[in-house]
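Researcher: Structure for this, please.
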Amino acid sequence: MALSRLNCCRWLLLYGKGESRPVRGWHSSCRLSTNTNPESLFSTILSRVKYVNEKYKTFLERNFPRFYSLYSIFTKGFRLLISDGKEIRKIREKMSHQGLMFYQLPYREIEKLRQFRRDIIKAAPVVLLSIPPFANYLVFVLMYFFPRQLLIRHFWTAEQQVEFLDVYHAMRVEAYPEVLAGLQQAVPQLSDQHLQKQMLQLCTKVQRGSHPEVAELKGISEAFSGPPLGLKYLKKHKMKALSRVLFLTTHLPTFFLRRRLWSHTFELQKLDIALLKLGVSELSDEELKTACYIRGLNSTHLTAAECRKWLTQWLQLSSRLKDSEASLLLFSLVLLSTNYLSSPRH
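Model: Predicted structure, token format:
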């Protein structure tokens, strides 16, 4: 028994983090006290981790510059995603404490919620994949080969952001002729002959390359409050075309297609109301481009002044529409953006 106790004390003295103090008697012989401050120990470990991380980054930068570039983009993007998550938590706490709905929030907070929801849905698989040890190397490979398909804007370079937004816009432009054709097909079904004439003139004008005026769109708004162009009455092929413009999947039953279009239209209306309260002039250049892009305009190659002018036109239309005419906003994603100062790649 005594030998066992002695061996115990020797082991602690050799490998323990504490400091032994000689005391009387065998009953106290193995008691060790420590003066190590937990916070100081944590700081020491943290500093060592940072040191090793810096050495690792230096090694990558010198020996594998392209891999280091991916590593830097990934770590920066991950920090931005975490920062967005913290902001979202504060916004949701505010909504909970004050009993607010999302559309009662200021414009920037509504936009943050909208964008984060889309980002996290797309980023979740990649983030989960990077959690296991050394799995981040697989993520780097995916970043290199499939950055547009698998990653969100946080993990794109500035050049990639412009390139990928052009690609996505080209994808929705493919649906524009189908949307315009759907409007023309609906003309004979309108009961008002004056509306038929106005609608036909508008479609012809856009197809010939001219940009319509807000007054012209407002003049046909009544046609979108009932059949066949009201949101409740849209045929499935028209809803599929509009879903492609909004980057929504088309592989859903009619009920879900209509519900998702209604949800996005409602969200867009509330964003417009909040933006009117804030004022277009209060937006930064980046916010202007983002606001135009989600409303159908490829703003990547436009100036801030051009974006501001277009967004002002959009809000002039949006603010004058009745709730029953909301489907006109969906078609305006095409009508107002098709011929407005076309970008080089448009």
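Researcher: Any notable elements?
Model: The chain has 15 helices and two strands. Residues 1-35 have pLDDT under 50 and may be disordered.
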